[in-house]
C-alpha cells in the first residue's frame, strides 16, 4: 500500500470535514477555521499520520476537537454585522439548506458535546466506540450524551411521533 500524499488527502477530505465541523459548530467560519487548523497541524506530522491505520479518523478527530476547543476556550472572533451580507449564499450552500430546517435549529441549540455526538453518530455514521475515540471519552459517556440530546430534541421538535420511529 502506498502512503497517500498530503495534498490528495486534503483535497478529498476538506469538503466532508468542513460539513462535519459545520454540523458540530453551527458556524461555517468556525468550521472552516477548525478544519484548516487540523490540516495545518497534520501537515507538520504527516509522515507519522499517514502511516496510521486510520488517518482519516485521526483527521476527523482533530477537526472536531478544534471546534470543541474553540467553544471551550471562547476564542471565537466577533464580527460586526451589517444590514446586507457581503455575499449571498446560493441555494445549495450549507447555510441555506440547514438554517431553515426546524430539526437543524433544534440540534444547533444543543450543547457542543451533545451536538458532536449526534453529528458523529448520525451524519458520519460512527460507532459509539469510534465517537468515544474522537471525543476522548468512554462509550458510556457517548451513550448518555446521545440519550440526553435525543430527549431534548424530542421536546423541541414539533411533530407527532410515529409508532416505531425515533429521532
Q: Count the beta strands.
A: 0
CATH architecture descriptor name: Up-down Bundle
CATH topology category name: Butyryl-CoA Dehydrogenase, subunit A, domain 3
Provide the helix percentage: 55-70%
* Secondary-structure element pattern, one letter each: HHHHHHHHH
Strand percent estimate: under 5%
The general outline is globular
Our count of domains comes out at 1
CATH class category name:
Mainly Alpha
What structural keywords apply?
167 residues; mainly alpha; Butyryl-CoA Dehydrogenase, subunit A, domain 3; 9 helices; 0% strand; globular
Task: Describe the protein's topology.
Blueprint: H1 6-25, H2 28-44, H3 46-50, H4 55-73, H5 94-99, H6 102-108, H7 112-123, H8 128-135, H9 139-156
What's a quick, concise take on this entry?
The chain has 167 residues and is mainly α. The protein contains nine helices and no strands.
Tell me what you see in this structure.
The protein has helices at residues 6-25, 28-44, 46-50, 55-73, 94-99, 102-108, 112-123, 128-135, 139-156. The longest helix has 20 residues, at 6-25. It has 167 residues and is mainly alpha-helical. It starts with 5 loop residues before the first helix and ends in an 11-residue tail after the last helix. Helices cover 67% and strands 0% of the residues. The protein has a single domain (6-76, 91-156), classed as PhyR, sigma-like (SL) domain (Butyryl-CoA Dehydrogenase, subunit A, domain 3), CATH 1.20.140. Helix 1 (6-25) runs antiparallel to helix 2 (28-44) and helix 8 (128-135) crosses helix 9 (139-156). The chain is globular and about 45 Å long.
